[in-house]
Amino acid sequence: MPGEETKKPLTQLKGMGVSEGVALGPIYLLERERVAVPHSRIPPEGAEAELARFKKALAATQRQLELIKKRIQTEESRDLQYIIDAQVLILKDVLLLQGTEDGIRQGLNAEWALELVRDRIKTVFEHLGDEYFRERRSDVDYAVERLLRSLLKRRVESIEDVKGNMIVASRDLSPADTAQMVHSRVIGFITDMGSKSSHTAIMARSLEIPAVVGLKNVSQLVKTGDVVAIDGFTGEVVINPDAATRQRFAELKKSFRSYQTQLPRYRRLPAVTRDGNPIRLVANIELVEEMGAVKRYGAEGVGLYRTEFLFMNRKDLPTEEEHYQNYRKVAEAVFPQPAVIRTLDIGGDKFVSQLELAPELNPAMGLRAIRFCLKEPKIFKSQLKGILRAGELGNLKIMLPMISGVEEVRAAREIIEEAQAELKKDRARFAAGIPIGIMVETPSAVAAADLLAREVDFFSIGTNDLIQYSLAIDRANAAVSYLYEPLHPGVLRMIRSVADAGRAQQIRVAICGEMAGDPFYTAVLLGLGLEELSMSPYSIPRIKRMIRMIDQGEARNLADRLLGVPTGSEIASLLTKKMEEWFPDFRSDQILYKTSLDDDLMKGGKDAEHDTHLGISSRRTSG
Amino acid sequence: MTSQYTIANRLGLHARAAAQMVKAANRFVSEIRVKTGDREVNGKSIMGILTLAAIQGSLIILTVEGPDEKEALTLLGSLIMGKFGEE
């Protein structure tokens, strides 16, 4: 085996890590290629036999699905059972059965007739305006594909065939596939398609096995038996890893295990630099359901609650009451810690069906976020009222997205005041002095940060958009994506100047883009003067660990030095060198899972006790 | 028999709700039609129901005809009004 592997080329791929963990093992390639559909004519006298063949295949397929359903009958997998139910119902659907039968009677073979019906049904789905319903065409596809395979006597390979600890690779996985993972020994999986919210990703997270999706063509690059290493956090995938890579992943895996077991204790350690400078670590969330993770990973509150989800997949707009109920849950869950609610940030790449925004040529620079809210004050006000009322029950802050200047802040404040006046008139209880802050994500907001700092209570730098707008790159355009450089001198200077402007007016400056959750940038961000980092809750422990190893003075010197370096790539290599010098294990583990937390727990034993004590007392005050 | 309802559950007639509705509908011999806007589909067809793309707040009209129409309408109505057990 080892001799053979050295001949195969090592291939590195980068996808989207959707479920944390590390796996190293052989591939099981689940063929989910479309079967080729044979077309032939059936003479009238053969129609009955063809119909019988169809019904037999149909019954067999339904039995398969029922069997899968039976095997996943646990309380946690109820949602999955419904998904399988829907598949069974599709195969019993009169539209499908009658349509296919008609085709057969008209002289088509069963596969051909079925294909025609499927395509007709899919066309109806494709014309639906709502994304969720439009996507149900893939459910039709999954079900019909299974039936076609049965007709063609092609075995439907299943995850149950996976023997031993293997990593499943596939173009895409159907709900029936993912359902079977509950009882399999699959140790990870990688797919060409998929997103964070696909069935696959959800299932992987609940089973706690690593998964990387959106790899484009991985299913064509591998075959069963190939060895692959996957990192479900970074999205890194290495096919045919060499000895060094295997070693690296084996260590990563070990670290990840110890990291998981030590997480609960680590949660209590404070995020302070070696020289005693406290940094606030808060969470980015978009669903109330994520509050559990916020607590589990030790976030000190919510730094960014994206509210767009409330507006999605519905015909009408959320009512003030719905806003209130959602924000209330967040406020109560984090109390006494604060939660920052970002007001509606639609437009650009986001889509909200009920608002019927006119299509724009350049949506990223179009009528979105605060611009949209100021143009639609009624929609804005009902959200604001919800926040103001929920603020009564906790510690909420309002954050305005995409502010380009002081005028927008003042206009928004006016609407907030109106909202307060209306609430007062209705004798509703609300938080009167709720802090108002802004996202700093446009170049003009950076340039005018000193002016804006006098008008607001806090800043949060949205690095993703700021990089895009300031370097003038369309992130969806692959031809210019190489320009997307978080360490571009222009970007670092902007972050520094915003931090300085905030400090001069004594307002807090946070950062909430992807940079905040990547330990590679932690020292730089601290050195640039940021005191609050907002990120996915899962990233908090490793960023905390990084912070605890950093000396604020040294970080400051490093940032000063980097600001004098002329290009992004030179900055990146200097930073890498410095990190390796400071943290000798930096490259080998990328400081992701490598948490010899034990050492840190020992070393920080005193701090830990101290913090635990504080934690308990503050929790007491919260009741 | 005809009755009118507003879809109140947050997710609308999504796959899970549609599956419940179709399963219930198939327990009856009566013909069941479901209409939203100008689109009408067979209430026993999951793909029909899904293509209604009925999201929260949609108005739907159920028409049931047959020997067990009363029971069918009662059961389907209670499913819709009970938000399909959501929340």
Please name the defining characteristics of this protein:
heterodimer; A: 623 residues; alpha/beta; Glucose Oxidase, domain 1; Enzyme I, Chain A, domain 2; TIM Barrel; 8-stranded mixed β-sheet; 8-stranded parallel beta barrel; 27 helices; disordered N terminus; disordered C terminus; B: 87 residues; alpha+beta; Histidine-containing Protein, Chain: A; 4-stranded antiparallel β-sheet; 4 strands; globular
Task: Give a verbal description of the structure.
The complex is a heterodimer of chains A (623) and B (87). Chain A is an alpha/beta fold. Chain A has four domains: 2-31 and 157-241, 3-Layer(bba) Sandwich (Glucose Oxidase, domain 1); 44-151, PtsI, HPr-binding domain (Enzyme I, Chain A, domain 2); 270-592, TIM Barrel (Alpha-Beta Barrel), CATH 3.20.20; 593-623. Helix content of chain A is 49%, strand content 12%. In chain A, the strands form two sheets. An eight-stranded mixed beta sheet of chain A has the order 1-8-7-3-4-5-6-2. Chain A starts with a helix and ends with a helix. Mean pLDDT of chain A is 84; it is low at 1-6, 348-353, 588-592, 594-598 and 604-623. Chain B has one domain: HPr-like (Histidine-containing Protein, Chain: A), CATH 3.30.1340. Chain B is 33% helix and 25% strand. Chain B has three helices and four strands, in the order E-H-E-E-H-E-H. In chain B, helix 1 runs antiparallel to helix 3. Chain B is globular, with a radius of gyration of 11 Å. The termini of chain B are far apart.
